[in-house]
Amino acid sequence: MLFGCSEPPVSRETPQTPALAEVNTYRYTVLLNGNKVGHLQATHQLFASDPGHTVTVDYDYKSNGRGPAYQEEISLNNEGIPQNWQISGNTTFGNPIEEQMQIYNSKATWQDATGPGEATLDRPALYVPQNSSPYKAFILAQALMQKDEQTMPALPAGTLTLNKIETLKVEGPEGEIAVSTYALAGADLDPDYLMLDDNKQFFAYIHPRFIVIRDGFEANEARLRQLSANYSTERFEALQAQFAHDYQGAVRIRNVRVFQPQDLSLTEPVSVVVQGERIHAIDPLSVATLAHETEIDGAGGTLVPGLYDMHSHTSDDDGLMNVLAGVTSVRDMGNSLEVLGELTNKIEAGVLAGPRVTRYGMIEGKSPSNNNNGILVETQQEALNAVRTYAEHGFPGVKIYNSMKGEWVPAIAELAKSLEMRVSGHVPAFSNANQMIKAGYNELTHINQVMLGWVLEPDEDTRTLLRLTALDRLPALDLNSEPVQTTLDLMVENNVAIDPTLAIHEYLLLSRNGETRAGVKDYIEHMPPGVQRSAKVSLAKIEGPEQDAAYRGAYEQILTTLKMMKERGILIIPGTDLGGAFNLHRELELYQQLGFTPAEILKLGSYDMAQYLGHSDRGSIEPGKLADFFVVPGNPVDDIKAIKTISLVSRGGVFYYPSEVYPQLGIKPFTEKPQVNAASAH
């Protein structure tokens, strides 16, 4: 009886590994804006006794002193559907990754940074990892290609669809080969674009700035990045053609209260008349709509001048989102000269939706951890030549980056100012804000770049993640101390502005795995499942309770510093470095914590930035000015959050109704489209 109740005897024999039938390893190069920054290696193992196979992936790249590193192991069944997916490593900013998914007996379970999840499956489904390499797109595409309609349910939510775009030839070490491009949609706001060879093997993952391409084919990089840009552009061109309303004749927006930034007031209900790209008149409601005018019912809402995102890195995939969010002007703070030029030309021609772009030229020094945007230089003379290049292209300012040598900045600033260009930027490594102010900066970008000079040792290198992680030293800093006050004095004396990018610091310092971050709570339920999921992931690595408290304390120190700057009369520039749109709404909302009223925030984000950049044609609602504005049902003078619910946007007299467009992007509308009466229909 005792023996009968005991556990079965444990075998002492070592389990035999199934015999390998085939092993194939594929190697790829990661390039960012034409610069090699990393690698991807994928090994496929097929076993003699198993109809499926196993894939291991090693992925790593570094740019700007940071980057992701993932190791993946994926088990596929005979239909190419992942049954087990294990991912470890770290995100771009060092947040550790331990993600896993299993499917067994029609039940899927997974664990990612947001916590555990599970689903009972009544049909096959594809798990979309929260953090993984671009090889993910190939794994998912392989499975979709085995389905007649090339569509499958996605886990945790949504639907994936694969569409073939075209076949083309690329040149390799042994001559030309044929490759086909595909769009994988449904995982996020924008599709992924990948390329497969004739054997349906992964060839490349392509993006306008970033590419993962098979070793030996790197010479095709620029062409394929441009191809990706074309695909993305074509998608947004189609949306522009369908949803941009360019009415013939005048347009009258009836029954709106206009926000007047000069005196922070709202008018009585009026009608605003737009003719062409400009505001033609502001009429009392007693003035009737003329037969040739299109009439839009403002329903008593508030009409607000278009907003500025003063820290953008413009791309075609955020242009439409910005316009729909009432962001009608941006300042680009670093981009490819060619890509940005082509993009702005298409926006101004009306082919693409997008804000008006003011271009600042990034100048970065070459180093092992340099940024790959803008113009890279190795000498002071090359830096001066970069200033001249930007001046020749009509740029009104330059931006200095972290790997530049601080001792070059005085000459750069002197030349830039002689060419009537502003000088802004990060604080170069081994320098501090005081030195850059004395060297000629007009504006400092990112509040951490200023504050690190108060806590770092002179030999500490800010070209690495240290410029973010060292913020945990801020709680111990006395903000009334001499070093802090000296910097503020210099900023006041030299009329130096600050572009704090406060929302990204909130994201960095306060986001935690498994918690929806504060900056997105007002709109996240309207977003696609993949975006909702990503909103519960920490941006940085949090080592434990002590660092958690230090980061929270650092954010409070940042707020206090910015309050002190505001009290000293230092101009605060609202920019996001997060793509603008909803993130600009959050940036502005946070300024209430600095002591701004909602009306002051609206003025700062529109009129003040137009004045700062010398844009006399926008920033307020007046006859003769550009018709750049948006309408919200609520009153943002009382509650700044009202700017998050937009019923219409005019960008130079072309009208957009967000509720029409958002469903095309997988976003649930925030409000209804206003009533529009066509000319001669009223």
TrEMBL record:
Assigned keywords, A-Z: Hydrolase
One GO MF term attached to the UniProt entry: hydrolase activity, acting on carbon-nitrogen (but not peptide) bonds
Keyword Hydrolase included in the entry's annotation: yes
SUPFAM superfamilies reported for this sequence: Composite domain of metallo-dependent hydrolases, Metallo-dependent hydrolases
Superkingdom, natural source: Bacteria
Signal sequence interval, chain numbering: none
Domain Amidohydrolase-related: start-end pairs: 303-642
Protein name as catalogued: Amidohydrolase
Species name: Lacimicrobium alkaliphilum
